[in-house]
Amino acid sequence: xxxxxxxxxxxxxxxxxxxxxxxxxxxxxxxxxxxxxxxxxxxxxxxxxxxxxxxxxxxxxxxxxxxxxxxxxxxxxxxxxxxxxxxxxxxxxxxxxxxxxxxxxxxxxxxxxxxxxxxxxxxxxxxxxxxxxxxxxxxxxxxxxxxxxx
Length: 150
Description:
The chain is mainly α.
């Protein structure tokens, strides 16, 4: 396991957290404590899940959670633009960070898929097809569920 601080995805997510915290402090009072706090929590959860993914054996669960948090942040940022809390320029700036993190999370998650998953599914479907063609699948089904074919 490498140091988390050295990973580009960790750095990108951490920088996104810093940018979002900077934006939240400039919101009007009405939005600062509602949407602003939600954004900050989601951002902290995203960076925490990146850290957890780096430390765990099963990375996909944490990567999926981090991606969900990033997508919720993207939604909140669009909402804030529509509520006139951030400008179009700020929206584009933040979306650059969000897109960077999202692409890295997607790539990391894709790299975690086992190469034999497709092979296993193919072999199982071939086996089922073969048993079905030979007429062996139906008796197995009936035997398994204690149903007699008479």
